[in-house]
Design a protein that fits this description.
This protein is of the alpha+beta class. The chain contains 2 helices and 10 strands, in the order αββαββββββββ. The chain has 2 domains: 68 residues, no CATH class; 111 residues, Umud Fragment, subunit A (Ribbon), CATH 2.10.109. The strands form 3 sheets. Strands 5-6-10-7-8-9 form a 6-stranded antiparallel sheet, with no helix packed on it. A hairpin with a 4-residue loop joins β3 and β4.
């Protein structure tokens, strides 16, 4: 009895396997299925060559996308001056200590002019500059404008001199145009040296 059941089981298994193999062969002639980037792509072409061309095209597009993300020659943009040296930063299990003289704490309003570097809810540490030589292209400074109320926090994009002396041109990172007017040193309140998110 046991031998007959075992034999029936083997025959059913072999018939199932054979039917599955024949069905798979017939379907593969009509369509091919590939998986690219965890997405199944099914093409209903009789030509496997077209399917392989599609895969090669997709691989090239993926490579092109990767090359664009990791550009070998990205545009150099001025960064803020290195105000805080590595030996001034002390990281402990329960606190971070930054050795700087006369730090000032700052928060920001929701103007979106400096997105994505900071926005409403970000916190910052600033210092008071001693003279124009402390202001560098790439620095983010807070200043009083003749054209707006309150304090504006934007990036220095140019430093120069004219008949009235030293000046800077500033611009919000997310703004299309520079701020109006030349910003004189006496308008600059602080330099941003750290942003805390």
């Amino acid at each position: 009895m046991f031998n007959k059941l075992f034999l029936v089981f083997i025959v059913v298994f072999l018939l199932g396997w054979l039917a599955n193999s024949i069905y798979g062969y017939l379907i593969s002639e009509k369509s091919c299925s590939y998986e690219i980037n965890n997405k199944s792509i099914i093409t209903m072409n009789n030509s496997k060559e077209k399917n392989l061309n599609y895969i090669e095209k997709t691989k090239k597009e993926k490579l092109s996308f990767t090359e664009n993300i990791f550009d070998k020659n990205p545009t150099e943009r001025p960064s803020p001056y290195d105000w805080i040296k590595e030996n001034q930063i002390h990281v402990y299990n329960n606190k971070v200590v930054i050795d700087i003289k006369n730090p000032e704490w700052a928060t920001f309003t929701d103007t979106n002019s400096m997105d994505p570097i900071f926005d409403y809810g970000s916190h910052a540490i600033e210092i008071i500059p001693k003279g124009p030589e402390d202001i560098h292209v790439g620095d983010i400074v807070s200043y009083k404008s003749k054209y707006a109320d309150g304090i504006i926090v934007h990036r220095v994009i140019k430093v120069s001199e004219d008949e009235k002396g030293w000046y800077a041109i500033l611009k919000g990172d997310n703004n299309k145009n520079p701020d109006p007017g030349k910003i004189r040193f006496n308008q600059i309140e602080r330099i941003l040296v750290a942003i805390i998110y």
